[in-house]
Specification:
The chain has about 400 residues and is of the alpha/beta class. It has helices spanning about 1-5, 10-30, 70-80, 110-125, 135-145, 150-160, 160-165, 175-180, 230-235, 240-255, 270-275, 285-290, 290-305, and strands at about 40, 45, 55-65, 95-100, 130-135, 180-185, 185-190, 225, 310, 320-325, 330, 345-360, 360-375, 380-395. The protein has a single domain (about 35-395), classed as Metallo-dependent phosphatases (Purple Acid Phosphatase, chain A, domain 2). The chain has 13 helices and 14 strands. The strands form three sheets. Strands 6-5-4-3-12-13-14 form a seven-stranded mixed beta sheet. A five-stranded mixed beta sheet has the order 7-8-9-11-10. A two-stranded antiparallel sheet has the order 1-2. Helix 4 (about 110-125) links the parallel strand 4 and strand 5. One of its GO terms (molecular function) is hydrolase activity.
Length: about 400
């Protein structure tokens, strides 16, 4: 028998090798690995099989309301939220920080606050996080030369009125950073960096949700942010169009002669309407009207924006962060500045996806989201929590 095997050893080795190759390719074809995972095929994973399998993904958003010229209180709030350290350097890692406007007026620290935001924006980006900066009605008031709430101490930090006007113009550094780094509204999607949805993994804000694939199971988990409010009429325009109108009006205000009586000459009607009572900068309906009215309004607005909630500043809530309509409305201007004397607060949105099941056809994930109110001197308060199971199928 041994002699027979020895005599035919080469053909036998070839047969064994052929059997191994066939089995290998059959396994490769019918046993999908992570590189084949997708959700209804449009979403391709960016997962690298050479790296350890990922079974949990997390993201964190922090939002801070009106700061109004008070650097000290702003720093205390940012430390409270864990996004800066004791040296005022970025410590938030991959956190997304959203500031909802009205950095300027009522205090003396305008220059220092905008310098801080520019610094943190760069540091956050290097750490994998982001700083999303919004414009409030007071930024536009200053661009228009409406300085009713500017303090003498603030003007002196600029070196006088003339220098302040130059710095807050299209040729000045504050005007330039507003144009380059600030918008009127933002839509921050979940999950940030989740590998099965690589089309949004590198974007911290999404301005055109209607152009995102409608079968994205995470599309409506996003949160929208604005200074005043977004009515259903503006929601129908979309975040991108709101920001385009706002950018055009901002440049027009910064580029002309100051001060204006109200609006720059030849301001188009859509820009004038944008700056009116129910535009995104001045809207107060969500804060002041009865819930019987605003809950229906916010339902329509959030559906149009494909978001879970709308986070706003502008209208002070001196008792602390206010949640309305099942946390679809979050009001985060609590009078942080010493000009108001309100509580020092921020909100935190914690989001996670945890792998709970996997087979050759799909992966199953547990999605968790918690919205917390942070207030100096008080324990964290849970405002909203949701949990659901999401299935992602192999393509």
């Amino acid at each position: 028998m041994l002699r027979v095997i020895h005599r035919y050893r080469k053909p036998l080795m070839l047969v064994l090798l052929l059997i191994f190759v066939v089995k290998y390719f059959r396994k490769s074809k019918y046993s999908p690995d992570a590189s084949q995972i997708a959700y209804l095929s449009p979403f391709k994973t960016n997962h690298d099989k050479s790296k350890p399998d990922h079974t949990r993904f997390e993201s964190r958003i922090v939002a801070v309301g009106d700061l109004h010229g008070d650097l000290n209180h702003a720093l205390r709030v940012l430390r409270l939220a864990g996004v800066i350290d004791s040296s005022n350097q970025w410590a938030g890692k991959k956190t997304v920080l959203v500031q909802t406007g009205d950095i300027v007026d009522r205090g003396k620290d305008t220059i220092l606050l905008y310098e801080l935001m520019d610094q943190l924006r760069t540091q956050a980006r290097s750490a994998g996080g982001a700083v999303v900066s919004l414009l409030g009605n007071h930024e536009y008031m200053n661009a228009l030369g409406d300085w009713r709430y500017v303090t003498k101490e603030d003007i002196s930090t600029f070196g006088g009125t003339e220098n302040r006007r130059k710095i807050i113009s299209t040729n000045g550094w504050i005007g330039k950073t507003w144009i380059a780094n600030y918008s009127v509204a933002a839509r921050v999607p979940h999950p940030l960096g989740f590998p099965h949805l690589s089309h949004i993994a590198s974007n911290f804000t999404s301005f055109q949700p209607s152009k995102e694939p409608s079968n994205d199971p995470f599309l409506s988990t996003a949160t929208a942010f604005v200074h005043g409010g977004i009515t259903p009429e503006y929601a129908a325009l979309g975040i991108s169009e709101i920001n385009q109108i706002g950018a055009s009006f901002l440049y027009r205000a910064l580029d002309g002669k100051l001060p204006y009586r109200h609006l720059p000459p030849d301001t188009p009607s859509k820009e004038a309407q944008f700056y009116a009572e129910h535009g995104p900068l001045w809207e107060r309906t969500y804060a002041l009207d009865d819930e019987d009215v605003v809950c229906d309004t916010i339902d329509r607005a959030t559906k149009l924006l494909n978001v879970k909630r709308l986070v706003m500043g502008h209208t002070p809530q001196f008792e602390g962060i206010t949640s309305r309509c099942g946390s679809k409305i979050l009001l985060i201007d609590t009078g942080i500045s010493s000009a108001y004397g309100g509580p020092l607060t921020a909100i935190e949105i914690e989001y996670s996806q945890t792998l709970i099941g996997q087979n050759k056809f799909n992966t199953t994930w547990s999605e968790n989201e918690a919205v917390n109110a942070l207030e100096e001197g008080k324990p964290k308060t849970l405002l909203f929590h949701s949990e659901r199971v999401v299935n992602l199928t192999y393509s």
